[in-house]
């Protein structure tokens, strides 16, 4: 079994690379069973998938769940999507490690100009393409894979703008060798991720922390909305439970509160990859969110 994460900018040749790799694996000496998991399998328009953050989060959740179910079937699973967020690639790496399988990233390295041109050509031909605004947003938020990150390693790099990607491509051949090579006590160039109690506990802990974070931040939002709904101008939202008050000097609408909440949760998730872990209890999560809101409101009031 193995998990291959295809990564690249929108319209960078990822699907061609995924199909080419799958065909090469099927024709290899080991005759591998291969399954491609992609966005088209959910029958959603690509612009709908990335129209807003909730839609994009929902898409990643569906892909991740499908990967989690598939890695135990004995196939090589190829995830054909943008996979542009390093935190998301880390989640896929965790799935591979928990399953005890091989893992690699296949990166289609194409400059933005070519991606933009190919997207326009697809649109002109009436094929599936990205709207201009969504395309530019995805390009701006792309996080390039780096070999030093364990969730981006081993990294196989393709250059579709410079060379034709087919089954004879050296990088495709290298990836096939890595994914099919027999592993024994003397094999040193193939890495099979090993599950551990620590890994499984970390996954459970992270899921629990995200739940607590989501619940705690929503309670804070509800408290702000309720106290503002009582009428009259307020400059302080009190929360009790030894939490500091939230200082405000203007009405804060629900859309703004939701935006701040989404940003906070995203920042917490990103910082947990290299910094302090997510809070594991509701009170800690509330305190961090209150501190964040006070900084934000303080900056807005200045």
Automatic annotation (TrEMBL):
The keyword Glycosyltransferase does not apply. The keyword tRNA processing applies. PANTHER family: PTHR12435. Keywords: ATP-binding, Nucleotide-binding, tRNA processing. Interacts with the elongator complex. Binds to calmodulin in a calcium-dependent manner. Belongs to the KTI12 family. Signal peptide: none annotated. The lineage of its organism: Eukaryota, Viridiplantae, Streptophyta, Embryophyta, Tracheophyta. InterPro entries: KTI12/PSTK, P-loop_NTPase. GO terms for biological process: regulation of transcription by RNA polymerase II; tRNA modification. One of its GO terms (molecular function) is ATP binding. It holds the Pfam family KTI12. This is Protein KTI12 homolog. GO terms for cellular component: elongator holoenzyme complex. It comes from the Eukaryota.
């Amino acid at each position: 079994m193995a998990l291959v994460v295809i990564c690249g900018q929108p319209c960078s040749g990822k699907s061609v690379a995924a199909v080419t790799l799958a065909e090469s694996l099927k024709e290899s000496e080991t005759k591998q069973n291969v399954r491609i998991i992609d966005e088209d399998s959910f029958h959603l328009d690509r612009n709908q998938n990335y129209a807003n953050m909730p839609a994009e989060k929902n898409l990643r959740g569906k892909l991740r769940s499908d990967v989690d179910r598939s890695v135990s079937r004995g196939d090589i699973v190829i995830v054909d999507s943008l996979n542009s967020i390093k935190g998301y690639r880390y989640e896929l790496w965790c799935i591979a490690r928990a399953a005890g399988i091989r893992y690699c990233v296949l990166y289609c390295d194409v400059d933005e100009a070519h991606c933009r041109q190919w997207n326009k050509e697809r649109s002109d031909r009436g094929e599936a393409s990205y709207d201009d605004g969504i395309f530019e947003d995805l390009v701006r938020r792309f996080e390039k894979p780096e070999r030093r990150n364990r969730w981006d390693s081993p990294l196989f790099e393709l250059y579709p703008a410079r060379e034709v990607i087919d089954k004879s491509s050296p990088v495709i051949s290298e990836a096939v060798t890595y994914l099919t090579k027999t592993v024994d006590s003397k094999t040193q160039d193939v890495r099979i991720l090993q599950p551990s109690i620590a890994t499984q506990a970390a996954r459970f802990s992270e899921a629990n922390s995200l739940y607590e974070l989501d619940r705690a931040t929503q309670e804070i939002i509800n408290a702000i909305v309720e106290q503002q709904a009582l009428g009259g101008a307020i400059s302080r939202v009190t929360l009790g439970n030894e939490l500091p008050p939230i200082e405000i000097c203007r009405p804060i609408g629900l859309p703004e509160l939701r935006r701040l909440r989404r940003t906070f949760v995203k920042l917490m998730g990103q910082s947990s990859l290299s910094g302090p872990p997510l809070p594991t209890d509701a009170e800690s999560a509330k305190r961090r969110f209150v501190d964040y809101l006070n900084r934000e409101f303080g900056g807005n009031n200045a």
